[in-house]
Design a protein that fits this description.
The protein is of the alpha/beta class and 855 residues long. It contains 30 helices and 21 strands. The strands form three sheets. Strands 8-21-20-19-9-16-18-17 form an eight-stranded mixed β-sheet, sandwiched between helices. Helix 20 links the parallel strand 17 and strand 18. It is elongated. It starts with a helix and ends in a 16-residue tail after the last helix. About 3% of the residues have low confidence.
């Protein structure tokens, strides 16, 4: 392995080899290396215009059109071929434009979720995008980071790394900054190197970058850099629906040829039958579905981006609309996450506050708002104590983790404790009291009582202690025998909008559950204040899940609105159990949230969450706002509603036209519609459907979680397809005695306008006068097809190319009257359908008629 030589070099030799210094690279040198070797990426993600364009011609639908066009050329129908290829160009052009803009939108959104890394340039610590890392950079790693390059460690403070992406070993490994005696030849042997793509799950470390981009261990295993995306529920359902439609079309076309050639002995030539069958096939297949879906999702993604919600893949827009349960941590969503000192416990308040701040992250920094607890302490102590703390020398420290539940720092010759190094620790009261020597039973009882009372007020508490220490380095096993000093409580105010936001969520049929690591008292206080719970039975401790079966746990958590003192494994199990019955979204931001984020149907993390949490999430919030999440769910539901509109409209119309035209073709010795007329009909009715992606949505459709129901879509298509078939048959009966050109023209006009009426009516299942009005774009795009239908037959182009015959005034009156009747029948059909499906249970689902298509 290339990293072997770096593993056995000492720090001085390592710097010489990498051409770097103790202070890291200079900005100028780093820039030169970046220009020479390129960004720290395995592969650059760019929108490939050529690939998008060629993809428009890979569809089965487009191949069928090409076949029809070439057959027309062979048969001498040059005008027909030109029109067919023109349709191909229009469909491909629309698909290309929408897909190109969508991919550009995703490319733009991905810039918001770039991983950052801490480096030293010219001796100054700074945060830069991971793609800007170069070989020789000096890097600092802390708990929660995703390692962005191969890094040789020169110092380690109990740093622990999850290397499962490379080694397959699930147990995290400890790394060290020492020089190895021998050269490491495998990843497990490289004890002083952390590798790109691995995760820091504990401790801290410092090191130099020895490999970036493809020049890493991860780059050697290229397939590991590709994350397999699981299809969403929507994609799965649409795939099932598409397979059923393809099978159905194949069977119907086979039946069409059998009846024409062997039963009715059709007078049509075989070539005409082929053209006619291809046109029918194009009519019934919802070829605009990919465009509608991509456009709907991309519009939803850009709308979310404006609300500071970024989706990492477009299908997440649809997924979030189907969410039934939203699991959140209270901090920053329900509360402001701006801590203030509430109260103190102990004999020396000043010492308690001062020692509580020493292990914090603020010492020596110009900014004092990176940690809300530290910021509250900093604002509480006087100027002299701030200056004293700022001058202390921290010689070793161990960060907080969920197992120890404390963080600590070793200070050299702490003022007031002359002559000794002092190990200062702070953390959960139970953890600190357990590690302290000077705590009598009565003191412990008083401390726990005070802690409980503060918790009932919704306050968080830190306990503080210290011990003298002779050495300059310590481990977690030395965090004991402390002198207990006192406790500090912190107030995190409830957001003024929290109560209303939770009420708005309830109106959407969205259930909110708090999952927190805080104490029972803190969680209960907050959940009660915002109206989420009203009884203690609705709150559950994580430990209550231990030792009970999944069946019993599901029964219990169904009524629980808030969970307290939850460990990462318990949080993961809660999400798993909830998903057995409902669609679940989870909002988390810590390294311990990653398993739950991956498990949830929709994982959401905030922009400033740990790298691991952001990597596991499907959606990233640029600010931690519950209002933004609720708005995202509403947007997702609108997307689902509009895609559902397209499916029920196009399938209802297509099934009706397919069946009626097929029946008519058996009863006539000519085609009821020419192939070129069917293609124009298909284009005219598909054109306005593109705007469905941005159509207005009835508020009632957003008041409950939504997901695509394939059976419901098929059922609606059957019911309203039958209505469309009956209408077309009326047209056939009215004009069957006329000349072929007259019947074809009148049927074409009626079919186009009937398709537009179907769009207007079925865009909402409410009566048309009670439904929300259509968008201006939809109305605007419906006008050109209507004008084409009524005016084209009277033009020379229409008569010569499409073989139309100008309708008489009498015939036009009959057509308009029939269309008005069709609109009335369609509206009555909606009312009957709603009444039948809502008020009367069905003994047999109509969609079971399609069960043979699953075989």
């Amino acid at each position: 392995m290339y990293f072997g030589s770096f593993s056995k070099q000492n720090e001085e030799d390592l710097r010489v080899t990498l051409g770097t210094t103790l202070n890291g690279l200079s900005k100028v040198d780093a820039r030169k290396r970046f220009l020479m070797y390129g960004p720290n990426e395995l592969k650059e993600k760019k929108v490939n215009v050529i690939a998008i364009f060629l993809r428009q011609f890979s569809s089965v639908f487009v191949l069928i059109l090409f076949v029809a066009g070439f057959l027309s050329l062979l048969a001498g129908g040059y005008a027909d071929a030109v029109i067919i290829f023109f349709f191909v160009a229009i469909n491909a052009g629309l698909g290309f434009l929408q897909e190109y803009h969508s991919e550009k939108a995703v490319e733009l959104l991905e810039k918001f979720v770039a991983t950052n890394v801490r480096v030293f340039r010219d001796g100054i610590e700074m945060v830069i995008p991971s793609c800007d890392l170069v070989k020789g950079d000096k890097v600092k790693l802390i708990t929660g980071d995703i390692v962005s390059a191969d890094i040789r460690l020169i110092s380690s403070e109990d740093i622990t790394v999850d290397e499962s992406t490379l080694s397959g070993e699930s147990v995290p490994v400890h790394k060290k900054g020492n020089t190895l005696k021998g050269e490491a030849t495998t990843i497990p042997e490289a004890e002083n190197i952390v590798f790109s793509g691995t995760k820091v799950v504990g401790g801290e470390g410092m090191g130099y970058v020895i490999g970036t981009g493809i020049q890493t261990a991860l780059g050697d295993i290229a397939h590991l850099s590709e994350q397999e995306q699981q299809p969403s529920i929507f994609e799965h359902d649409i795939s099932i629906l598409s397979r059923k439609i393809f099978k159905l079309v194949g069977m119907l076309l086979a039946l069409f040829f059998v009846l024409h050639l062997f039963v009715f002995h059709s007078a049509l030539s075989f070539t005409t039958l082929v053209f006619f069958a291809i046109a029918l096939c194009i009519t019934i297949i919802p070829e605009a579905l990919p465009v509608i879906t991509t456009l709907s999702l991309s519009k939803g993604a850009m709308r979310l981006a404006r609300n500071k919600v970024v989706v990492k893949r477009l299908s997440s827009v649809e997924d979030i609309g189907a969410v039934e349960i939203l699991c959140i941590d209270k901090t920053g969503t329900i509360t402001e996450n701006k801590m203030k000192i509430g109260d103190t416990f102990g004999d020396n308040i000043k010492e308690t506050l001062k020692l509580a701040l020493i292990p914090g992250s603020l010492i020596g920094q110009k900014s004092h708002d990176s940690n809300p607890f530290d910021a509250a302490l900093w604002n509480e102590i006087d100027k002299k104590d701030r200056e004293d703390i700022g001058g202390e020398e921290r010689i070793h420290e161990i960060s907080f983790d969920s197992v120890r539940r404390i963080d600590s720092v070793l200070v050299k010759h702490l003022k007031g404790y002359e002559g000794n190094n002092v190990l200062v620790a702070r953390g959960a009261p139970e953890a600190m009291l357990h590690r302290s020597l000077n705590v009598t039973p009565s003191t412990k009882l008083k401390a726990l009582h005070w802690f409980t009372e503060e918790g009932k007020k919704g306050r968080r508490v830190l306990a503080v202690g210290f011990r003298t220490f002779e050495h300059d380095v310590y481990t977690s096993s030395d965090e004991k025998d402390f002198h207990f000093v006192g406790m500090v409580s912190f107030v995190d105010p409830i957001k003024s909008t929290a109560k209303k936001t939770i009420s708005d969520a309830a109106k959407l049929g969205l259930e909110i559950k708090i999952i927190s690591g805080d104490s029972r008292e803190v969680v209960y206080s907050v959940a009660t204040e915002v109206g989420l719970i009203s009884h203690e039975y609705e709150l559950m401790l994580g430990e209550e899940l231990e030792g009970i079966s999944d069946a019993k746990a599901i029964q219990r958590i169904e009524y629980v609105k808030a969970f307290a003192r939850v460990s990462p494994s318990q949080k993961f199990r809660i999400i798993q159990l909830l998903e057995k019955k409902k669609r679940v979204a989870f909002l988390g931001d810590g390294i311990n949230d990653a398993p739950a984020l991956k498990e949830a149907h929709v994982g959401m993390a905030v922009q400033h969450a740990s790298d691991i949490a952001r990597d596991a999430a499907d959606i990233v919030l640029l600010n931690k706002s519950l209002e933004s999440v609720i708005e995202a769910i509403k947007t997702g539901r609108e997307v689902i509603v509009n895609i559902g509109k397209y499916l029920r409209i196009t399938l209802s119309s297509s099934f009706g036209n397919f069946i009626s035209i097929s029946i008519a073709s058996l009863l006539l010795n000519y085609s009821p519609l020419l192939a070129i007329q069917i293609l124009l009909l298909n284009l005219a009715t598909d054109f306005p459907m593109i705007s469905i992606a941005g159509d207005n949505v009835d508020l009632d459709d957003l008041k409950k979680p939504i997901s695509h129901d394939v059976k419901e879509i098929i059922r609606i298509s059957i019911v309203f397809g039958i209505i469309t078939t009956l209408f077309d048959n009326v047209f056939f009966l009215l004009f069957r005695t006329e000349l072929p050109g007259v019947l074809q023209t009148n049927w074409f006009i009626g079919s186009v306008i009937a398709g537009l009426i179907t769009i207007f009516s079925l865009r909402s299942m409410k009566p048309w006068h009670k439904a929300v009005g259509p968008s201006r774009l939809l109305v605007g795009l419906m006008l050109p097809p209507a004008l084409i239908a009524f005016l084209l037959p009277y033009t020379k182009f229409g008569t010569s190319v499409f073989h139309f015959v100008p309708p008489s005034a009498n015939h036009m009156g009959i057509i308009i009257f029939a269309l008005l009747a069709f609109f009335v029948i369609l509206e009555l059909g909606k009312r009957a359908y709603q009444h039948f499906t809502v008020t009367r249970p069905q003994s047999k689902d109509l969609s079971t008629s399609f069960s043979f298509l699953d075989k």
